[in-house]
Design goal:
The chain is α/β, with parallel strands linked by helices. It contains 21 helices and 16 strands. The strands form three sheets. It has a nine-stranded mixed β-sheet, with helices on both faces. It has a five-stranded parallel β-sheet with strand order 2-3-4-1-5, sandwiched between helices. A two-stranded antiparallel sheet has the order 6-7. The termini are far apart.
Length: 485
């Protein structure tokens, strides 16, 4: 038997293994037993909306459950009446597929299924870990243009590469879908603690539904656990991994991105320098940075630092949040900005778990809250930081109306009940509200839910764990008003 025939036979064998529903009519039990991520409720309608002829690109950090979501999508398609023989799954990272074009793999699949090469049936074709194929975006774009009766879905973990090539080559052909690390809302759902939260109608911002609890001690402990271990499904459900999260997260998520994905994409030479920068950022997540101070501290040139931060943000490891003035104007010369990890458990993996009362708790609570906002691609949020005369001030999160370029809401993040009893000490927020015609603002607490009516407006105090849950819930479109509630 010639080599090409032997290779084709092996590929056909592999395709049969990867598509057990061709024979059994359903996904492997292993995936069926797993709870689907709540993002499936948003992703699945995109896959099945055939009125828009585009490929769906599922992207996000490593280990957030992209492959599992593909399997859950396949199982749901079958449950909704799609023939299992019209669903094709191809894991592009399989070594035997190396150097083989997507179209060849698709045609071999149809050959196995004894389908005509030019038949007009509706197919769903899933390419997992597509970044392992060179020039994947050219291949996929060509297939989208050629096959009008096929919904192509591709996923990949080299998020920076996917995003860059999708933007460059997929205009009008690809729809990007970002799967973030677990939100606190999803974490509570997967841990089956939904019954801890109670919905409450309030008059906030013209009428809202918020979440409260009768057991804030348990919810706060879950929130701390989320900060330490809550970003990645495998960590959430494995006590063994939680005993040493650094080994799992550092090896499978951080090292593969810093040592392989980013250097291969951007030609980074000094990987150790990039690694040191990320470690420093992770330790100080939620702090204010400047290129000037970072350059002095690290010895790295400012232009190089800018590139590194751009790469880390493209890889979905960090998010840069820009500052605005006390009237929401962007600084013409941006000298300072905040950087947050996209999920706080990255810090735990690099260093150690934090506990209530630790010095880092404030910044990590703030990081956890920002992690709930990051998945909202359209959210225009910043932080306000100013100095007027001798008086300086800061407000942690400000929502900006993109059209008017004016603040429409503000939130001060605290892991303390102190300010619920002494609201007058929130000097920056009390200055900011009347200056920007804000009649109310949210201040998070550790345990207290109450309102304070002051001369400048109403402060709405609520436990930060409830607020994080609420933002995550509304990110998934459960209910939302103009203010993100």
């Amino acid at each position: 038997m010639e080599y090409t025939e032997l290779l084709e036979k092996q590929i056909i064998g592999r395709l049969k293994i990867d598509n057990p529903w061709w024979k059994d009519g359903q996904c492997p039990a292993f995936y069926q037993e797993m709870n689907p991520r709540l993002y499936l409720d948003i992703f699945y309608p995109l896959v099945t909306d055939l009125s828009i002829h585009r490929a769906i690109i599922l992207m996000g950090p490593r280990r957030v459950g992209k492959t599992v979501m593909l399997y859950h999508t396949i199982q749901k398609l079958i449950a909704d009446g799609v023939s299992p023989k019209n669903i094709i799954y191809i894991s592009v990272e399989t070594p035997i597929y190396n150097g083989i074009y997507l179209e060849q793999l698709f045609n071999l699949s149809k050959q196995i299924l004894e389908k005509e090469a030019n038949d007009s049936e509706q197919y769903y074709v899933f390419f997992d870990e597509i970044q392992y194929l060179q020039d994947w975006e050219v291949n996929l774009k060509s297939m989208v243009d050629t096959y009008k009766n096929i919904r192509f879905v591709a996923s990949g973990s080299a998020a920076a590469e996917l995003k860059k090539r999708s933007d460059e080559s997929g205009a009008g052909r690809f729809t990007d879908f970002h799967l973030p690390p677990l939100t606190f809302y999803e974490y509570i759902h997967l841990k089956h603690y939904d019954n801890l939260l109670i919905e409450k109608n309030v008059s906030w911002f013209g009428g809202s539904v918020i979440n409260t609890t009768d057991d804030i001690a348990t919810l706060n402990q879950l929130f701390i656990n989320y900060i330490n271990y809550g970003g990645y499904p495998e960590v959430v459900f494995s006590e063994k991994i939680q005993e040493n999260p650094g080994q799992f997260i550092r090896h499978d998520i951080i090292d593969k991105v810093l040592l392989r994905d980013l250097p291969s994409l951007y030609g980074i030479q000094d990987v150790q320098e990039l690694n040191s920068l990320f470690t420093m950022i992770a330790y100080h997540s939620g702090s204010e940075f400047s290129y000037e101070s970072m350059s002095k501290e690290s010895g790295v040139k400012k232009d190089t630092l800018r590139k590194y931060i751009e790469y880390l943000e493209a890889a979905f490891l960090i998010r840069v949040v820009h500052r605005t003035t006390d009237t929401a104007k962007r600084y013409q010369r941006e000298t300072s900005f905040k950087i947050y990890l996209t999920n706080p458990s990255l810090r735990c993996a690099l260093f150690q778990p934090i506990a209530d009362g630790d010095e880092e708790m404030g910044n990590m609570v703030e990081t956890a809250v920002f992690a709930q906002w990051i998945p909202r691609q359209s959210a225009n949020i910043s932080y306000a930081n100013w100095k007027v005369g001798k008086k300086a001030g800061e407000v942690d999160i400000v929502g900006i109306d993109s059209g008017l370029q004016k603040p429409i809401w503000a939130v001060e993040i605290k892991w303390s009940d102190l300010y619920a009893e002494r609201p007058g000490e929130l000097e920056s927020l009390l200055y900011y509200m009347p200056l920007n015609n804000l009649s109310e603002a949210i201040v998070t607490t550790k345990t207290i839910l109450k309102d304070h009516l002051l001369q400048c407006g109403t402060l709405r105090f609520m436990p930060v764990a409830c607020y994080a849950y609420l933002v995550g819930r509304n990110t998934l479109g459960k209910t939302r008003n103009l203010y993100g509630l």
